[in-house]
């Protein structure tokens, strides 16, 4: 009970803060903006566009002041160009997660959190944060064994604040969904639910530690990548100790060249590793922006910050493989069919129109190079098609689209002539080979094969038993059909009700025939007739009760 009261108290505090900031930025015209959101803006004049721009800028400034939860939600919405006006999307993209580092007395904090003596494990700790974000800030340190490490320290009170914000945001979105059709149409509730789940996972350093371990395990035999190492004894849900990655950002072409490396070859490696995550592991980095991908002095690629990842089941991964194959080879009918299988919800207005729209989209891929192909515009059109047909995809699909757009941005900086289609095609061949390989067929059908083996082993004995029973006249066939039994039972019940109805009718007719005989009478009707009338009515009532119970 105390926990619930604490959460509600925190939510009320955040609600008061929200109202204060909304009032500060003058959102009394918010309702009219929502009411007019469906109006046609094609003929909007310059003054109208300027008003909208100013309005959207105020939204962005208010979000930044509201804090990390709202900033991260805005960043999530910045990838949904199918849901919001272009001007608002531009403001969402300006949202920054960089905040001033908080003051932490690091050594006492580590000793309290980890229940250790810091000097026993660390030879050096830099008390100045090298990076600072809304959820955590990071410090560089050195272990007694000589390894350089990074200490990621969660901000005090961030979990409680985010939890309160999520509760409040959920209430607000439910209210807007109930009162405004435009909010309901864009499925904002689904977008928020996925965001809340991902943010809560990102808040857990225990979860991030497991992600790093799984990521390293997936790439354990790959020589072109440098994975991070974790130190579980020096980590908990609020502190994360990981190996330090020495390198430069993937989009820093000058720095890559200064290391004596070829930017185009580095890009090839990076793209290959990302495709491996998607199409082989089904476990991929959900936010591969340039600040999260490093190039080491030896030319290896390192993906850092694995708090946000996307995971796919084997079935999801197989559907994604199908989707990529049909996308690359421009098979619109099969592409739409695969989308239906992947989707959480589908309400397609016209299948033929949707296939035609996807065919037009796929025809754009005829120009393959990054210089000519606008990937962002391509996926924006794809998202609009989904939204127009009320197709809600699993969250990993939206994260995948976001990841590809980010990778495309990196590619534009390092090698504008990179041919994306040519990079994907070898994976398509690999997928096809794996699908028809004897090893995969055996793995997928091992259960069936085992049953066949068991059946073949017992078949001779079973056949011998059947033949012996036939020869001795003991072979019997018993048929027990559930539907037949149900109909038979219904027929018996109907017959019982019919008999009761017949008895009631006979008693009633008999009462009528004996009504005028010379006998003790009441109200001019003989006593025996009254008795028969009452008996017929009683039988009729019992029949009705029995029929009601049977129907119920």
TrEMBL record:
Tagged with keyword Membrane: yes
Transmembrane segments: 496-517, 523-545
Keyword ATP-binding listed: no
One Pfam short name: ABC1
Domain annotation ABC1 atypical kinase-like: ranges: 95-337
One GO MF term: kinase activity
InterPro entries cross-referenced by the UniProt entry: ABC1_dom, Kinase-like_dom_sf, UbiB_kinase
Keywords: Kinase, Membrane, Transferase, Transmembrane, Transmembrane helix
Signal sequence bounds: none
Highest taxon listed in the record's lineage: Bacteria
Family of the protein in this entry: Belongs to the protein kinase superfamily. ADCK protein kinase family.
Xref: PANTHER family: CHAPERONE-ACTIVITY OF BC1 COMPLEX CABC1 -RELATED (PTHR10566), PROTEIN ACTIVITY OF BC1 COMPLEX KINASE 7, CHLOROPLASTIC (PTHR10566:SF113)
Protein name: AarF/ABC1/UbiB kinase family protein
Organism, as annotated: Sphingobacterium bovistauri
């Amino acid at each position: 009970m105390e926990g619930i009261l604490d959460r509600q108290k925190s939510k009320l505090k955040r609600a008061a803060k929200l109202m204060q900031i909304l009032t500060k930025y003058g959102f009394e015209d918010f309702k009219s903006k929502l009411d007019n959101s469906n109006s046609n803006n094609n003929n909007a004049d310059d003054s109208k566009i300027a008003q909208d721009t100013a309005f959207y800028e105020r939204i962005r400034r208010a979000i930044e002041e509201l804090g990390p939860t709202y900033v991260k939600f805005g960043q999530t919405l910045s990838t949904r160009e199918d849901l919001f006006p272009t001007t608002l999307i531009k403001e969402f993209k300006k949202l920054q997660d960089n905040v001033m580092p908080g003051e932490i007395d690091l050594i006492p904090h580590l000793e309290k959190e980890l229940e250790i003596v810091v000097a026993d494990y660390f030879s050096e700790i830099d008390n100045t944060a090298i990076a600072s974000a809304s959820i955590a800030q990071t410090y560089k340190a050195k272990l007694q064994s000589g390894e350089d490490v990074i200490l990621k320290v969660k901000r005090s009170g961030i979990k409680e604040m985010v939890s309160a914000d999520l509760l409040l945001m959920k209430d607000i979105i439910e209210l807007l969904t109930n009162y405004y059709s435009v909010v309901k149409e864009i499925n904002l509730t689904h977008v928020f639910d996925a965001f809340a789940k991902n943010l809560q996972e990102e808040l857990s350093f225990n979860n991030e530690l497991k992600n790093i371990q799984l990521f390293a395990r997936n790439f354990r035999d790959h020589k072109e990548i440098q994975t991070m190492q974790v130190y579980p004894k020096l980590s908990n849900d609020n502190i994360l100790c990981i190996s330090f990655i020495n390198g430069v950002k993937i989009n820093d072409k000058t720095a890559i060249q200064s290391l004596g490396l070829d930017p185009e070859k580095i890009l090839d490696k990076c793209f290959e590793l990302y495709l491996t995550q998607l199409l082989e592991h089904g476990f991929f980095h959900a936010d591969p922006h340039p600040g999260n991908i490093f190039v080491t002095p030896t030319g290896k690629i390192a993906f850092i910050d694995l708090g946000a990842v996307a995971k796919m089941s084997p079935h999801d991964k197989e559907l994604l493989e199908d989707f990529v194959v049909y996308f690359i080879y421009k098979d619109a009918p099969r592409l739409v069919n695969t989308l239906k299988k992947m989707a959480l919800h589908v309400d397609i207005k016209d299948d033929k129109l949707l296939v035609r729209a996807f065919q037009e989209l796929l025809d754009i891929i005829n120009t393959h190079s990054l210089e000519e192909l606008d990937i962002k515009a391509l996926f924006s059109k794809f998202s609009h098609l989904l939204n127009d047909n009320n197709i809600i995809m699993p969250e990993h699909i939206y994260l995948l689209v976001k990841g590809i757009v980010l990778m495309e941005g990196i590619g534009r900086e390092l090698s504008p002539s990179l041919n994306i289609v040519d990079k994907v095609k070898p994976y398509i061949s690999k997928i096809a080979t794996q699908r028809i390989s004897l090893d995969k067929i055996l793995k997928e059908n091992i259960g069936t094969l085992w049953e066949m083996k068991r059946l073949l082993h017992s078949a001779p004995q079973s056949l011998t038993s059947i033949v012996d029973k036939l020869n001795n006249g003991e072979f019997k066939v018993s048929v027990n059909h559930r539907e037949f039994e149900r109909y038979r039972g219904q027929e018996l019940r109907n017959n019982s009700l019919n008999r009761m109805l017949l008895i009631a009718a006979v008693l009633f007719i008999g009462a009528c025939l004996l009504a005028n005989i010379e006998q003790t009478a009441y109200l001019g009707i003989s006593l025996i007739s009254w008795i028969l009338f009452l008996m017929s009515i009683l039988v009729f009532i019992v029949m009705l009760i029995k029929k009601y119970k049977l129907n119920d």
